[in-house]
């Protein structure tokens, strides 16, 4: 074998395939970077929690742990493990039940 055999140019089809593979690798790296940046920026910011309306009257000594707004009802889960069901307009709880 001589040195001239090592420097022969690639066939056109193989050069095109090499270009496609290189381009695909670059696009995949950019895509991974984009997804990583989006996940860090979107998941890094805390989501503001909904506030309990002023019209809702909580029983003495309870603290809300979770609030859910349904179409006609407002559900409050207390830190003591109790579920309070309110009408959408607020006021006193219509139903109280302990968590199982």
UniProtKB/TrEMBL annotation:
<dbReference type="Pfam" id="PF20082">
    <property type="entry name" value="DUF6476"/>
</dbReference>
<keyword id="KW-1133">Transmembrane helix</keyword>
<keyword id="KW-0812">Transmembrane</keyword>
<dbReference type="InterPro" id="IPR045519">
    <property type="entry name" value="DUF6476"/>
</dbReference>
<keyword id="KW-0472">Membrane</keyword>
<feature type="transmembrane region" description="Helical">
    <location>
        <begin position="20"/>
        <end position="40"/>
    </location>
</feature>
<protein>
    <submittedName>
        <fullName>Uncharacterized protein</fullName>
    </submittedName>
</protein>
């Amino acid at each position: 074998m001589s040195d001239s055999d090592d420097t022969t140019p690639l066939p056109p089809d193989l050069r095109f395939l090499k270009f496609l593979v290189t381009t695909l690798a670059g696009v995949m790296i950019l895509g991974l970077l984009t997804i990583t940046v989006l996940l860090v920026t979107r998941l890094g910011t805390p989501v503001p929690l909904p506030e309990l309306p002023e019209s809702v009257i909580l029983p003495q000594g309870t603290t809300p742990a979770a609030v859910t707004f349904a179409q006609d009802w407002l559900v409050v889960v207390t830190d003591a493990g109790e579920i309070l069901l309110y009408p959408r307009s607020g006021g006193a709880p219509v139903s109280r039940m302990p968590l199982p």
